[in-house]
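Box 3.1 — From sequence to structure: V-set and transmembrane domain-containing protein 5
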Amino acid sequence: MRPLRGSRGRSVVVGTVTLCLAAGWALQTPGGVSLVVPQPNINATVAQNILLSVEYSCQGVATIEWKHVSSWGTTSIVEWRSGNYVNISTVYKDRVTTFENGSIQLRNVGMRDAGYYFVTVMEEHGTNAYGTIIVNVYEIIYEDLHFVAVLFAFLAAVSAILICFMWLCNKSLHLFQKKTTHKLTASTTEEIELETIEC
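Predicted structure (token representation):
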């Protein structure tokens, strides 16, 4: 006995509709936590302050935790429950400020602060959300500053030489005009004397 063609197709359709309804119901159930990381990459220089910015939303009370992972290991930075306690690691005690939206500010960053920053938002009902921010920290390259200083000194020297050259040209022109005026005056005087003698 062979199966009817339409029964197999109907069971697939019924299964798909049931699955879609279950997914829609799960999405509409209250609770859950969402987390947005607006700037997943941050570039900073040594001694700069940086803001590790996130935005979370949830129905209940959330616990926020930040960790730093780098080649030096994993370090817990801070953990707090919204409206309650704040537990900052002793390594970051004077360098971290927490914000109600889940963000933290890290002051006076160094080369060891480069790496991955993981934030976890845990809702009291057991729903979690995760985010990652990559931080690159660069040293101020003093060779570049040295190059700028040398270039500035060179331009200043060239400017001084050009100013001296222009001053000399101006002085020479002034002397030339003075001599020319003196010669013209002398020749005019001679002509007047000659005219007087001829008369």
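Summary of the box: The radius of gyration is 41 Å.
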